[in-house]
Amino acid sequence: MANLAIASGKSLCEQVLEPIQQAFGRIGIRSGYRSSTVNAKGAENKNQYNCASNEFNYAVHIWDILDTQGYIGATACIIVNSFIDYYERTADWTALAWWIHDRIDSYKGLAHFNNLVAVYVSHVDKIVFTVLFHLSDLHRLLLHCESVLLSRVLFPSHTQLSTQR
Q1: In a designed cystine with 1, which of 6, 20, 64, 157 is the match (CB 3.0 to 4.6 A)?
Q2: For position 48, what pLDDT does the model report?
Q3: What is the largest CA-CA distance in the chain?
Q4: What is the pLDDT of residues 67-76, one digit of tens each?
Q5: What is this structure's pTM?
Q6: Which neighbouring-strand residues pair with 111?
Q7: pLDDT tens sequence across 26-79
Q8: Where are the alpha helices (DSSP H) in the chain?
Q9: pLDDT tier at 12 (50, 70, 90 boundaries)?
Q10: 57 backbone dihedrals φ, ψ, rounded to 5°
């Protein structure tokens, strides 16, 4: 299982995080890999720590277990430091989301948080869908990717606004 976590994390870094850092400068990583034990603790007591179930987080935050379709994947919560000033002036979180969407083919999903302009960014070894979120007001822009309908969202309990690109 350790080899799977290393392979997942390596792919996330090489194919998603390093290109972001190359374009924007140093990024901060707030979170990444979670063990099943830590994630389960975060998901208990009515999700008091905002963690989804272990089964949902396989190949998302739990990098060392394949998802239900047999794919590896990884997610990290990052801060693009050079983007903070722009965001504070404009409140335009979509500029970074569209930059990632237009230039990084292997990302799986994004979730934006106003707090420090933090972004969850995911990678999976097979692109199934692409998601852009803005969680501060629960608006979502869901994009079609490779003509595959969205089947799974990072936070399925929130209302969704679906659109094609």
Answers
A1: 64
A2: 73
A3: 44
A4: 888 888 999 9
A5: 0.74
A6: 120
A7: 999 998 999 999 999 988 877 777 788 898 889 889 999 998 888 889 999 999
A8: 2-12, 18-24, 36-47, 54-57, 84-90, 94-103
A9: very high
A10: -90, 0
